[in-house]
């Protein structure tokens, strides 16, 4: 029976791949990848000679039927994204849903995802939290903020560095400038940094030191 395995890959530090992920990548018949260049570099690093086949956001809908056919024709296929866990703010969900509809077995290995170290190291309660991924840029963003302003659980967002200050401004506007936040930047990389404080304090810091790299924002829930 055909099987699709979602394999998480490092979010910055190549040591964060699991032994099992390496074994599965070696054993699999096909590797579907969000960006084949990124994945081929990763495979080369671990001395795995298996060419990656594109499966990315631009062709996710279009290539679904073809991908399902390819999975059916093999025993084991793997889906990876550029970094972290596939389908978490990355392509994958549609393929998983379609595989399940088609009776194809799905497995997801445990492994890196940026939200987990960010929420755990934030110091905010992490027994319960909500993951919002990227908020919509324009339409629907205000509505999300209004809903999130009432949220009592810790909130986790993905955001790009050039929108960070604006985003912190909106947290201040909708949740109050005293709301505690933690910005986790470049997790597992050389310039890894956690900035904790009130929204106003953290926003001032990043106004003075424009951030680079990848960012997770963690917001304390409403008290
Ligand atoms: N699939 C990935 C995961 O499991 O976390 C997420 C992919 S999403 C396209 C990329 C976003 O994840 C970045 O814009 C950033 O918000 C977050 N991210 C990924 N790597 C990160 C890192 N090393 N440090 C901080 N945030 C990171």
Element layout with pairings:
Layout: E1 3-6, H1 19-27, E2 30-33, H2 36-45, E3 52-54, H3 64-72, E4 76-80, H4 93-101, E5 105-108, H5 115-122, E6 129-134, H6 141-149, E7 154-159, H7 164-175, E8 180-185, E9 193-198, H8 199-208, E10 215-219
Parallel strand pairs: 1-4, 1-5, 2-3, 2-4, 6-7
Antiparallel strand pairs: 7-10, 8-9, 8-10
Helix pairs in contact: 6-7, 7-8
Bound molecules: S-adenosylmethionine.
Describe the structure.
This protein has 2 domains: 3-108, Tetrapyrrole methylase, N-terminal domain (Cobalt-precorrin-4 Transmethylase, domain 1), CATH 3.40.1010; 115-219, Tetrapyrrole methylase, C-terminal domain (Methyltransferase, Cobalt-precorrin-4 Transmethylase, Domain 2). The strands form 2 sheets. A 5-stranded parallel β-sheet has the order 3-2-4-1-5, sandwiched between helices. The protein has a 5-stranded mixed β-sheet with strand order 6-7-10-8-9. The protein has 8 helices and 10 strands. By secondary structure, the chain is α/β, with parallel strands linked by helices. Helix content is 34%, strand content 22%. The N and C termini lie far apart (50 Å). Helix 6 packs across helix 7 (164-175) and helix 7 packs antiparallel against helix 8. The protein has helices spanning 19-27, 36-45, 64-72, 93-101, 115-122, 141-149, 164-175, 199-208; strands at 3-6, 30-33, 52-54, 76-80, 105-108, 129-134, 154-159, 180-185, 193-198, 215-219.
């Amino acid at each position: 029976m055909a099987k699709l395995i979602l394999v998480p890959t490092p979010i910055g530090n190549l040591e964060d791949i699991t032994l099992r992920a390496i074994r599965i990548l070696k054993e699999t018949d096909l590797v579907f990848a969000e960006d084949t260049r990124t994945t081929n570099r990763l495979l080369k690093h671990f001395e795995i000679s298996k060419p990656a086949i594109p499966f990315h956001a631009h062709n996710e809908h279009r290539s679904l039927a073809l991908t399902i056919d390819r999975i059916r024709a093999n025993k084991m296929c793997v889906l990876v994204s550029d970094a972290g866990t596939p389908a978490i703010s990355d392509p994958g969900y549609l393929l998983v849903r379609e595989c399940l509809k088609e009776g194809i077995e799905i497995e997801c290995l445990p492994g890196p995802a940026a939200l987990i170290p960010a929420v755990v190291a934030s110091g905010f309660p992490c027994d319960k939290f909500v993951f919002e991924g990227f908020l919509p840029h324009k339409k629907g963003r205000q509505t999300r903020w209004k809903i999130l302003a009432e949220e009592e659980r810790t909130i986790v967002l993905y955001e790009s560095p050039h929108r960070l200050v604006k985003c912190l401004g909106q947290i201040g506007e909708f949740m109050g400038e005293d709301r505690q936040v933690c910005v986790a930047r470049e997790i597992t990389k050389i310039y890894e940094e956690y900035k904790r404080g009130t929204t106003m304090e953290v926003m001032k810091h990043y106004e003075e030191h424009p951030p680079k790299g990848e960012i997770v924002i963690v917001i304390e829930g409403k008290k």
